[in-house]
Amino acid sequence: MTLRLHNTLTGTKEVFAPIEAGHVGIYTCGPTVWNFAHIGNLRAFMFYDLLRRQLQASGYRVTHVMNLTDIDDRILDQAMHAGTTITEYVKPFVAAFFEDMAAMRAQPAEQYPRPTEHIPEMVAMITTLLEKGFAYVADGDVYFRIESFPRYGALSHLDRSGLRPGARVATDRYDKESASDFALWKKAQPGDDTLGAAWDAPFGPGRPGWHIECSAMSKRYLGDTFDIHCGGVDLLFPHHENEIAQSEAANGKPFARVWLHSEFLSDASGEKMSKSAGGFTILRDLVAAGHDPLAVRFFLIANAHYRQRVRLTTDALHASAEQVRRLRDFAERVRRTDPAPAADEDLIARIAEVRAAYRGALDDDLNLPQGIGVVFELVREANAALDEKKVGAGARGALLGLLEEVDGHLDVMGGEEPGLADEVERLIAEREAARAAKDFARADRIREELRERGIALEDSRDGVRWRRVTPA
Ligand SMILES: [Zn+2]
Question: How far apart are CA 429 and CA 370, in angstroms?
């Protein structure tokens, strides 16, 4: 089977083929770290994780870039009210984002670029757009001229008769009705300097608009043209439309080849989940209410297809927790049961059939819910076979193989040892102390010890992070 993905650009499912054999470049719009990510954001991030895992399962090496937006109107507002710089203001929310991702077992991206650390790239792109006549300066701000880009609106199927040439919007977010020239650069306002939010540029001191960061940073890490761009459907217009216009106008080359959009999560009343709609639920609230982050993960990726709207309710979360428990119990039972001296060719054939159906579902635009449905049918059948002592060594091995493959996407079956996180954090702190004391032999020993227990350490700009790997 080959992987097929629903490309928003063409509105069809297409057979996926990367630019470079064996390697896929993905850009995904990440969080704006002005606050905790709400569950609607997390749905998109877990969808990115599912995509990554399916590409890896298909044999590709993945380069995944996810931006952390650390400057926008809201961050400036909040930092000003808090009397601090934007850099200081976002720190706890950056940390909280990585904690949420780890709690939900999202695989780390290869790069987490931030706009405040890529100002030169953005200034260069804006300069090119000015030189090529796609942008203009108005009262110290720089705007993209949408009239100059005839393909503007192709992704979101915008009715171009509604365009208002020359009309300008300075805000980062607006609706289709107000499609108009958008800000690439906003001139410095009094006080921006104190917030650490003003930079020099040939077109005057100021700060970047929101949209230019993704064009400049995807170019830096993935090149002018790359394989897949993802985001929540709420970013389709204007953000993604603006990204395409900026990148293709500046680079003179096609931008992302495949666009994938995940649907909204709605709250219990059916409203789109967002802070502005008042349905603000964050992972730590759910965890405080007793929900397992892995049940939330299961709910977000396995309960409904990523292009379907889904409603977050307590009942739905409990149902997901129950499904996770059933999978864990089944895996445990298979592992603990000694193979029966039984002829189990029929069961082996049935497992192979389920495995093929599972793979087929994932290859069909990441249809994990369908794949999981087939697996649960098998769980029922295999539990009955276990009751009757009809599972021999062959079927047992095939079941374990299938469960491992399924957990490659779900990542919910490996139960956490109680207190593991605290223990790992303690060892990381010990290793840091050893490194500070230049006792590198001891630091390396601690790293090795963790590696043997299936914990890999990664040094990042945000300190040391850890993730589960196959024990060495
Ligand atoms: Zn973006």
Answer: 43
Q: What is the pTM of this model?
A: 0.86
CATH number (3.40.50.150, 3.40.250.10, 1.10.730.10, 3.40.50.1100) of 283-410 reads: 1.10.730.10
Measured in Å, residue 98 CA sits from the centre of ligand 1 at 19
Q: Which amino acid is at 252?
A: G
Distance 39 CA to ligand 1 centre (A): 18
- Domain 4-262 sits in CATH at 3.40.50.620
Q: Cis peptide leading into 208, omega within 30 of 0?
A: no
* pLDDT tens per residue, range 207-227: 999 999 999 999 999 999 999
Residues of the chain with CATH 1.10.730.10: 283-410
Going from the Cα of 229 to the center of ligand 1, the distance in angstroms, rounded, reads 9
Distant-in-sequence, close-in-space partners of 419: CB < 8 Å, separation ≥ 6: none
Which residue type does 255 have?
F
Could you tell me the distance, in angstroms and rounded to a whole number, from the CA of residue 331 to the centre of ligand 1?
A: 39
Q: How far apart are CA 142 and CA 184, in angstroms?
A: 5
